[in-house]
Amino acid sequence: MKKIFLYLLIFTFSVNAQQKELNLDDAVLGYYKGLYPKNLRNLQWLKNSDKFLYQNNGQIIFKNIENKTVYTITKSDFTTVFTDRKRLPYVETATDDFIQFSGKNEIILYRYHQKTYQSIKLPEGAENQDFCYQNMYVAYTLNNNLYVGHVTNSKIPVAVNTDPNIVSGQAIARSEFGITKGTFWSPKGKKLAFYQKDESHVDDYPLVDISVTPAKLHNIKYPMNGRGSEEPAVGVYDLQTGKTIYLQLFDKAGKEHYATNLTWGPNEKFIYLAEINRDQNHMWFNKYDAQTGVFLQTLFEETNDKWVEPEHPAYFIPDGKDRFIYLSERDGFMNLYMYDTTGKLLKQLTSNKWVSNDILGFSHNGKFVYVTGTGNDPRDNRLFKINTRNGKIKDLTPEKGQHYVQLSDDGKYILDSYSNVNIPGKILLINNKGKIIKQLLLAENPVANYNINPKPEMFSITGEYGDKLYARMFKPADFDPNKKYPVLVYVYGGPHAQLVTNSWLGGAPLWMPWLASKGYLVFTVDGHGSAERGFDFESVIHRRLGVVEMKDQLHGVEYLKSLAFVDANRIAVHGWSFGGFMTSSLMTTYPDVFTTGVAGGPVTDWKWYEVMYGERYMDTYQQNPDGFKQTSVLNKIKNLKGKLLTIHGYQDDVVVPQHNIALQREAIKNEIQMDFYLYPMAKHNVYGRDRVHLMKKILNYIMRNNK
Q: Model pTM?
């Protein structure tokens, strides 16, 4: 018996001796420190091929569907050809013939079998590069103008204007409505469609560049709520003729409307746009002649007294029958609808009570469409195969979690990279029936030897209106239920975001379990307005941002106070952007609940936020004066009792510095003491090494003042 006890004592000491102390620097820079799960870097399918590649151990490895290596580019092979390079490049496009990557002011095509390459030289300052592998052209912008380049001619003008208010080839509408770029190659690469915007009526907003002496004015265009906005246009450039035409955009939507979700028809003859009025309550899905720019017809319309927000293009079924699938949440959840090109609704393909997120592609004959979505648990992201004839659904990712999925061009094979709270990372090669062909990677727990618990507790609470709200909590690795712990509530609370996910760390950054190791509970709950719960759950926030969301956070606080191990007198709150708005709103609306708050990049009055996002959720301040008055932090700063630190990037072009500086002015006028910190070179967030400084600033403030 004594021997067994002695063995257990030695074993326990040995295990404890192996525990490393995680410091905050490493927690913040975890990706660079190897403290996040291993992955297969650069994993992707080759175009029009059943081969895939990834990078590992200084090699680019090409595999077939039997997971056999068919080709390898070693670092020495590569640097022998590219003598000015010391490492392998990040592959942007891959085919059986070449890999494409970007250099400094150039696009490089490396024909790896022949060990030769071609280069498209671009002018200094070229941005928004969009390479088309079918024709070997690249579209790019230079200042506000659009060009295309080829190995034989690297600067062919597409849309060049001397008026600085005309911007071509860039994302429009402040990247809302699912817009991520401004150029769109046609399916065969014969034409290039592009967005253009006229910002003549958009106000200049002054930022200050302090990197020069003396500091100088840096004006940006910023369309503020209720003021002048941009006017969209769509151009089409023909590579063969070298001419550019413009679509004759829809008059009914108004000049300052939104031309979104540009889609090429498969025969390159037509372009489709989801066009929305500025009030964002009416959408017309329109068809245009890509040769002449003539408006042809409205295929269908959607209206809603709150908002209509298309975020996906049309997805044409590859069966030659002129049919496409459109994603819409008109029935309350994002579902699939099948139309033909005359505008006839053929069928509602799905009627799920959960959210479809994206369409990845089709089987080669169009019989099946592959869709990502939450399934029955909003914290998951799964892959589903849906029969386009009868709507029958098969889950191809039966293991719960957040799946990042890549579909081969022919729809036969899938690369499935995923994690959940218990699995740091796994990558599978599967076929389109869901059969596992090969496990490519199983990542180990990267912080197994550290003094933290990377697995949060995942649970739900009851929120406003009796809805289930999903929550997450990190506890110290040596948690003792007989102790009393202070709490940090981490909040975002706004649309298009979900903090609590079934992924490694529960979707949290590594600093959260680090803070737990310092004797804190770190709690997060996704309330009304957050993503993946459907339109009704999200839209209750309309015209009163923060009101219902704060009540949900208070339900979270009530839950915390019901726990015997929570120190109910030491609850702090922190968030960034919309989370900064929530933090400052909570501290001033419910001043007796939280001792301490840190609000990063906060919106303090929605009249100073951008048109596209702000008017969707709040309307204009002229239309909704009571809503703006009720939600303004400036009107409530006089209520502040606890310690509040607000932080802002001085170059913030999303939530402009006026929000935070005006809040400081109101605090002074009301004789309220609060704290303020500025990051002189940061935009809307703080990255790189500076982020270590930021997190130390935030967490030290919380630990020092949450008493």
A: 0.95
